[in-house]
Amino acid sequence: MIYLPIVRGSFLLPERFMCIVILAVLISGVASAQRKVAHSSTPLQRLWYTKPADRWLDALPLGNGSLGAMIFGGVDGERIQFNESSLCTGSLDKIGSFQPFGNIFLAWKYNTDASATAYRRSLVLNNAIHETSFKKGAIAFKRVYFTSHPDQALVGLITASKPKSINVEIKLKDVRGEKLTEGTSSLFFQGKLENGISYAACLIVKAKGGVVTPTDSSIIIRDADALNFYLTAATSFKLRAGAEFAAGENPEKLVRARAKRVSEKDIDKVLTDHKEDFSGLFDRVTLKLGDGPDKPTLQRLQDYTQGASDHDLEALLFQYGRYLLISSSRAGGTPANLQGLWNNDVKPEWYSQYTTNINIQMNYWSAEPTNLSECHEPLFDWVENLAAINRSTSDNVLKTSVGWVTYSTDNLMGGGSTWRIHRPGSAWLSQHFWERYAFTGDSLFLARRAYPLLKELVSYWDGHLVETSAGKLISPDGWSPEHGPHKDELDKRPYPGASYDQQIVYDLFTNYIDAAKKLKIDDGFCSNAERLRSKLLGPRVGKWGQLQEWAEDLDDSTDHHRHNSHLFAVYPGRQITLQQTPQWARAASRSLLSRGMESTGWSVAWRLNLWARLADGEHAYAQMRRLIQYAESPGQAEKCGLYANLFNAYPFQLDGNFGYTSAVAEMLLQSHENVIHLLPALPKAWADGEVKGLKARGNVEVAMRWKSNHLVNATLKAVRSGTYTFRYGDKVASVYLVANRPHVIDLKTKTHTQ
Ligand code: FUC
């Protein structure tokens, strides 16, 4: 039972009274509560394997937000495939696609023919270090790789247990076949894409001892004691430059300067700066769901697929999503695309760009709740650029008299695939601006960036919605993404009042109204938005108890389509909640059940978030087990699952990984309607656990420990002093939190401590 310092429903009690209550509690139980809440330190999160990667999807990802690399870990022949986030074909008029950049090939030689023993390659998520180690005869070799954000370079540190044992030929190759130019200890290539984007890469080698010999196409290192190498890569892409997107900084100068700088910097400092930078973000959140077996990652995944229990693998995958976001999305850079930052194909699936009818948004669902707000920033920059371009477009399909809309898939520059217009895309993207404020409470961001965007889109929908004879406002030409109406049907029958459009517009109006009220501005405009929202055709429950996808009751209960568009209002929207609209929430569960558990990776991840938001931990957990399946085990439909490197399969899109991470956060913590809900969807399977560092809206950091499926204690730390309401089970209470002072609620001793 939870101790309630303030009686249920009394959220508005004066702060003075709260302080007195808390003070009384303080005196009674400080020490014991403090002792109990101490979190045990979480061991390093690690993926590890006992043989080199044969294929790209076995390799392990590194990334510093712009430079991404896949490490294969070969013993004799080694490949490092790399990307740079802005190397894209396409333009403002043509979608194009994200391009692979190049490869480093390393041909290693040894003084013995003995095969490698004690082989291991691993990726530590906490500090983003990849390490390959093995023995050849009596000599132990170690290769450490990381992509540094502070130094904007991929760094390789090669050592051996015996001097003069390092022998290798290093090649650097452009995917498009541009020729190398080189000095004595550097390799360099540059080229230009059709769209004018120039690119360049530079690799510098520093050997300790031994002999370094350049050839026409490589560098050969003989008998070195140790070897460091540094790779830099960049393009001339510039965001927010409109048609001048290719006219950014000269990449040749940039990569040469960066490579020189990092190669001359003290290597210990390079390493420490990298670790501090990465861990500074990663270690903000820890999650412990149980101990995992000490087995290679692929083995664990295969065992799990066969039905083994491994809660630590579930936690590892949660942290992997955070790892991938930090690695692919850093402030000042480009947003994580469909494959994050990792792509090996000249023609990747769906262009590996930004699809706005779920995928790009899903990439960022975890950013705020899992304490990576900074990593959300590239999305805002990209959206503002897209808005600027589409606002002034000459494309008749996109043109609007006020505001802007999107195509279904948009590229880095702000161009789109003309395959399908997607009007609510802009409103859905604007939700991220509101959420950024809701989580951080950053009023400057709200006033300067979120509010103008939201207001403009309210104006767009004010002009676009039409009134039915029954006095309801509907979107006249709606779509339930990729489900209907299809393109060939579209001209014949635009779909008025599709739930997807209606719910997103509702969400936009709500976010706008809340923003205007926070800022205390635009009363008249805000009242109009309230009036419009009240007239919107709302969710309806159909004949089999489902939440209708269409304005009419047309849903087929055997339809398992991958999109869950009519459930937007549940997640990521907030129109439907268990507390405020239980009938609709029930109908949403019915619809979700009928959609089934089988689908593509991102779809399953969305369903997982939906079950979590519906506080149904058991369905969420069942859906989670479906997601964590080895995609390549015999009999797998290859629709959804994970590859050996834990990338989400469909075929390969990273949205499923990111969506998984947000869902786990959502199972453990929610924060709607100004209530912080502790453990809202804890499945029975997670009997014991602890989490630290999750964020609730209002900028409250939350830690929790639970045992035998019951919360033991929770620590809330708010950035701003004030009264906060929290819920656990059916108990609701309010507490006054002093800024930056952890407030411990111990459910065993029924005490509060600050
Ligand atoms: C959505 C999905 C597709 C694919 C694409 C990138 O449109 O319907 O399945 O994931 O995004």
TrEMBL record:
Domain Glycosyl hydrolase family 95 N-terminal residue range list: 47-90, 97-238
One Pfam short name: Glyco_hyd_65N_2
Domain Glycosyl hydrolase family 95 catalytic: 267-668
Alpha fucosidase A-like C-terminal domain segment(s): 670-732
GO molecular function: hydrolase activity
Keyword set, alphabetical order: Hydrolase
Source organism superkingdom: Bacteria
Name of the featured protein: Glycoside hydrolase family 95 protein
Organism: Chryseolinea lacunae
